[in-house]
Specification:
Layout: H1 2-26, H2 28-39, H3 45-67, H4 74-98, H5 101-110, H6 114-131, H7 136-151, E1 159-161, E2 166-168, E3 173-175, H8 183-199, H9 212-236, H10 240-269, H11 290-310, H12 322-334, H13 349-368, H14 374-382, H15 385-418, H16 434-446, H17 452-469, H18 472-493
Antiparallel strand pairs: 1-2, 2-3
Helix pairs in contact: 1-6, 2-5, 3-4, 6-8, 7-9, 8-9, 8-10, 9-10, 10-11, 11-12, 11-15, 12-15, 13-17, 13-18, 15-16, 15-17, 15-18, 16-17, 17-18
Length: 499
């Protein structure tokens, strides 16, 4: 049960992510028609209560099975079966709370065989991924030799020990574990590329496009070796804590994101691979793209965060946090003309809503306390006054200025309206839909990890601030007020884990 439970949850999560992503990319017109029907359908509150009840039982059974041992004999099988049934029921209740059976049937018909493709992709990833663990050792040796080759032009006398897989310099050495062989990244890019070519097969030129499969796999595998070589060079240069900290954890994701985005660009823009051009309604500059104006500031902040995280020392502060702030400022300035038509007036209720969000956030933190603040506290203690002041200054500036602007533009300005219509810029800020409000708030809440419940509640309240008078400034001010109060609370009581 312990093994199968994890695999079941992986399959459910993977299927939902793959199906939702490619359904949106492939069947936008059908989904917009279904979305308009959903907007006119009321929520089934009885099913929502049933979902909440099933989740309570599911959590209790999970605790009993995984933490308390799960009993023995026939009772163990009974609890395991109940756990599975209750978990599936909770998902079903949640699905039917917002979508009727007729709409679900329409969704399945509109997406064709996508559910089968997603199921096969998830099942294959689980099975093949488990089998491919046997290739970890030979792939590990190949990564080891590639890393040595990349290091040789920059370091004289590379130290290698193939028996222990240790490689590096006299000053800094690492052990290349089997998990670092690059196969996990290869599996990710392989699943992404194959599924993309399958779903967008009409837009891709075959058999030419098949060349991109081995090319993408080989490129990511080589980039993994380059990542390890760069890690060793960073450590050899005296920045051991950066090498073993942020760079070690972020560089792989940066490489995967770069290869994925490059693949998407090639399959849609390079004529040799494109069989049929997809229609584009606004081929001009980015300032003519309303989606870019609302999303790019937020996305560039995330990209800057990945870069800043890669330069973070192990157990230290994110010294390049200021990159997030300036990336957001640059994007907001670039699209400043697009925001001129928005109403930036606000009233007294916006800061009041922000204060309520602050109280809820602190209250939930005191009830759960999911994180310890020792790491940041220690990092601040050992940092120089200049680093400490710079970090705190830009944390506060970002929390009060750029974070409210970029996140409200993305989640309330774009996503909440995009869930109502494809032409979201024509949708009034005062138009209300439970599906749009809750959907955008859930996505917003998941940004905050362990504080996802507080994040969802905050998203709902910020959404109400926007809908009440149809002014984006109200949502921004409510968000900024909550963040300002939270920043003051953190600085006063040293609750660094809230950042």
């Amino acid at each position: 049960m312990h093994d199968w439970g994890a695999w079941i949850l992986r399959c459910i999560t993977g299927f939902a992510a793959i199906f939702a992503t490619f359904a949106y990319l492939k069947c936008k017109t059908a989904l917009e028609r279904i979305s308009s029907e959903i907007a006119q359908t009321s929520i089934h509150w009885s099913l929502l209560v049933a979902h909440a009840s099933a989740m309570v039982i599911f959590v209790g059974l999970s605790f009993f099975l995984y933490d308390a041992g799960g009993g023995s004999g026939s009772w163990a099988y009974l609890f395991a079966t109940s756990w599975f049934i209750v978990g599936i029921s909770a998902i079903a209740f949640a699905g039917f709370t917002f979508l009727s059976r007729a709409i679900w049937a329409q969704l399945i018909r509109s997406t064709g065989h996508l559910w089968a493709y997603a199921s096969m992709a998830v099942f294959s990833a689980c099975v093949v991924g488990n089998i491919l663990r046997q290739l970890w050792q030979p792939a590990n040796y190949l990564t080891f030799n590639l890393t040595k080759m990349f290091l040789s032009p920059f370091v004289s006398g590379v130290i290698t020990d193939p028996a222990t897989m240790i490689i590096g310099t006299r000053r800094f050495q690492v052990e290349i574990a089997p998990q670092c062989s690059g196969l996990e990244g290869v599996g990710l890019i392989l699943a992404f590329v194959i599924l993309w070519l399958l779903v967008f097969r009409r837009e891709c030129h075959f058999p030419r496009s098949f060349v991109l499969i081995p090319f993408s796999v080989a490129l990511l595998f080589v980039l993994n070796s380059l990542r390890i070589a760069a890690l060793i060079l960073i450590g050899n240069a005296g920045a051991e804590r950066i090498a073993l900290g942020g760079f070690h954890s972020q560089a792989g994701w940066i490489a995967f994101s770069a290869v994925s985005m490059g693949f998407c660009f090639v399959t849609q823009r390079v004529p040799w691979f494109v069989a049929r051009q997809r229609s584009r309604t606004s081929p001009d500059g980015v300032n003519d793209n309303p989606t870019a104006a609302f999303l790019l500031p937020f996305l560039m902040t995330l990209a800057a965060g990945m870069i800043a995280g890669a330069a973070k020392e192990a157990g230290g502060l994110e010294r390049l946090y200021l990159l997030r702030f300036f990336a957001a400022i640059a994007m907001l300035w670039l699209f400043r003309r697009s925001y001129a038509s928005l109403s930036w007036r606000c009233d007294w209720l916006a800061p009041a809503i922000g204060a309520v969000v602050f109280v809820i956030w602190i209250g939930l933190d005191r009830l759960s306390s999911p994180f310890a603040d020792r790491e940041v506290s220690f990092a601040l203690t050992v940092s120089s006054p200049a680093v400490k002041v710079t970090w705190i200054t830009f944390r506060v500036l970002a929390a009060v200025v750029t974070v409210p602007l970029t996140q409200e533009l993305a989640f309330r300005g774009f996503l909440m309206r995009r869930l109502l219509s494809r032409d979201f810029e024509l949708v009034s800020f005062r138009r209300f839909s439970w599906c749009a409000l809750l959907g955008s708030s859930v996505v917003f809440g998941f940004l905050y990890g362990g504080y996802w419940i507080a994040g969802i509640i905050a998203g709902i309240l910020f959404g109400f601030a926007l809908i009440r008078r149809g002014r984006i400034a109200d949502a921004v001010l409510a968000h900024a007020t909550a963040n300002a109060l939270l920043a003051a609370y953190i600085l006063e009581y040293h609750k660094w884990h809230l950042w």
